[in-house]
Write a structure and sequence with these properties.
By secondary structure, this protein is an all-alpha fold. Helix content is about 55%, strand content about 0%.
């Protein structure tokens, strides 16, 4: 089965909000004493993702 790929186009503000939400989720899991492995993997992938500048044209 082919692995699905997703593309997110975020501006700087949206990028910061997603990053902060992932960090908050990780902190909540730590407080509950649960594993954070999945959130750690997503954080690493999200921060190492290649950034591409695009121009959005509104018609």
């Amino acid at each position: 089965m082919k692995k699905q790929q997703f593309h997110f186009y975020l501006n700087d503000d949206e990028y910061r909000k997603v990053l902060q939400a992932l960090i908050d989720l990780k902190n909540n899991l730590i407080e509950q004493g649960r594993y954070t492995d999945a959130v750690d993997d997503v954080l690493i992938k999200f921060t190492k993702a290649r950034k591409k500048r695009i121009t959005v044209q509104y018609i």
